[in-house]
Here is the input.
Amino acid sequence: MSASVQTVTRTGVPDAKYGELAETYASPPGFWGWLTSVDHKDIAKRYVITAFVWFALAGVAAALMRMQLSRPEMKVLGPDQYNQAFTVHGTAMMFLFAVPVMLAIAIYVVPLMLGTKNISYPRLNAFGYWMFLIAGCLLFSSWFLNTGPDTGWFAYVPLSGPQYAPGKRVDVWAQVVTFSEIAGLVAAVELLATIIKTRAPGMSLNRIPLFVWAILVTCVMMLFALPTIAVASTMMLAMDRLVATHFFNQAEGGDPLLWQHLFWFFGHPEVYIMFLPGLGFVSSIVETFSGRRVFGYPVMVLSMIATGFVAFGLWVHHMFATPIPQLGRSFFTAASIVIAIPTGTQIFCWIATIWSGRPRFTASMLFALGFIIVFTIGGLSGVMIASVPFDLQVHDSFFIVAHFHYVILGGVVFPLFGACYYWFPKMTGRMLSERMGKWQFWLFFIGVNVAFFPMHLLGLMGMPRRIYTYLPETGWGNLNLLVSVGAAIIAISVVLFVVNVVRTLLRGQPAPDNPWDAPTLEWATSSPPEPWNFANIPVCESRTPLWSSEGVLVNELPVVTGLKTDRRELLVTTALDAVPDCCHKHPAESIWPLGMAVALGVTFIGAIFSPWFYVVGFGLATIAFAGWAWPRKTEHTDEAVLPTGGIEELER
Amino acid sequence: MTLPRRVVLDVSLLPRTVFGVRDMMWWGTLAFVIVEGFSLVLTVAVSLYLRKNFATWPPEDILLPSVVAPTIQMVLMLVSLPVIRRLSQRSMDFEVHPVRRLLTIAALFTITFVALRAWELTQSLNVRWDANAYGSAQWLVVGSHALLLAVQSVETIGMALIFWRGPVEKKHFSDASDIAFYWYFIVLSWLPLYLLAFWLPRWI
Here is the structure.
């Protein structure tokens, strides 16, 4: 590799090269191009939109529940419909919204933040999206057909076993989980490889943006958490129901408690998998709108890593009401309290950043501040229920519902809306209305607190979870009405957000490349970016590459030259210090990721009814794999070794 | 307004084909090895967890698993390792004819592994999956690894076909080398599972 220094004044790309890039990255026109796209930005945008559709439908389930519970003895939903509503709501929010939407934004932003041209495995990325789409279609179509899952998002056995849950509702749940976990795993793998191997030259570990660190830790956690639920649901619960295995059948030596251990070994880290990206969003937003680097970068990184480790040592606190040895309860109580330390440390770092910076209170920043307040309240009630005696008192009551909604809305949805306002200009090239954004924030903040704070009191008054109605004599009516009013305010806030988005897409203000004067590399390219992201890969000279050490915007960008423009190439760098190491050719558009998704869709949906679909599916997947992996003849002679059917000697 | 660019590096002379940790595909393989490896660890945990529900393992009316076919399988797998190591070395030297030959041998190995695994499941375990939780656990452990063997078989046969019939590019040598990496995982992960499924019932 040779190094040369020359200054260019425009984009750094001569017009001829620009034309060649445009030709190289051109995708097929029309619907076929949409089906075969492998651009991480296209996939991410449809991922985000799809996740918000599932969010809205799961919100409909919540609205129905709140109407039903708003007064005693309401008749909006019957008991069976209510069971389906809370199961579909929980399943969709956890498996189809909270984790996927965070990953979707990461799929869009991470490659840009790293200064690379695409995600590491673009076809795998497209495949993951199709799996995710199938998961949601399966869940909601089954609900609309009155075969929606009805045993809770955790599907405890024996309730969900073959004896107590005849029919196909739980099988639908198990396969929704299968599809969403496949999608999650492939997203984790491709994001990990992207972060490890395609960072801009110079972006050593101590210069990685905190959002990317958050995604790195999240993806590592996913590699261990997601297989657990996949094994438990697809290979054990579904098999108990389909081919009469006995994993959870006590009569034949199985063990119902084993399900709870496996589910929560996944389920508790899942909470951190959901909100660690949210912490990353907040770090990006707070840094930009405070106009200074985040205070305590090494502490922030170590806190996230610590959270990732400790998150796997907490799962039994979901099982304090089961026969767990005393020593185990003490250990898991201690671990549950310990995890508050790294999270609390990060909150102090953000406060220090804002305190010592020059904060601008944009809609995005307001959501970040709202996160700090709401999430801290959720964290404090979490410390309360880490204590076994208190947990046993409020177990399965509305206090728990209040706690986890504070954590999830605080840790996921507040940062998510903040991220939407922050990155929307980059994704679409248009600026969302700040005025509507601030209205939306206040409605959401008030709505969340009106909806969920009274639930603490309802729980302490003894109102259990998962009941479809209650008697007037309980005295729960007025607080429940208040909760439902809060839910309605949340719904208005979300509608306002949708209106803002649609209005902006139709006639919003055009966005400049860096509308917020932000410091990270995604703001160094156009809004929205070209299909190749960066004509020249940027070089990263500090942790905030677009800011000088004084926090002022730089006036030029150091870049790399030498990647070929007649083919899609990524620059691969070393894992630790991000030194340029090689160039990697990227695959073109392909229909086969969709083909593979259809093959697996037929397999797992068919397997709800017959185990033979696994055999059929293996054959279909093999065909799809062949289509996916079989090489096309290259146009570039420097890559070819043996043309089809030829036996020429190797050209070194 | 686009930021002006200042060119500071030229990467045009960097290699286009690399191997092992330098190659991006290797990291994807590693990640899937972690996912699959941890799934296998979970099957072991399930098996040991269910063991506590039984006075004897296997339960009294169930025959011990046969060890003949599984031991042949284990020995064959270990014998395949030097062959696969050679495949990896030849790939790194871009030697097309040896790689083609070794991939063919590897494909034959995987076909044998899958056939033997089918025999192990149906003839050696001596229990059906629906007999009791012991049978379910045994099928979970051996069947999970069988699924990985089947995937490995498809990949290896596919790669061999590419080297026989497809337009071969330099990057395919790196892919062939990654097959070796995955192969080591498949064989070495089977060793503890083999002991757990076929020998542990004799020892405890």
Remarks:
- The beta strands of chain A are 6-7, 430-431, 509-510, 557-561, 569-573, 580-585, 640-642.
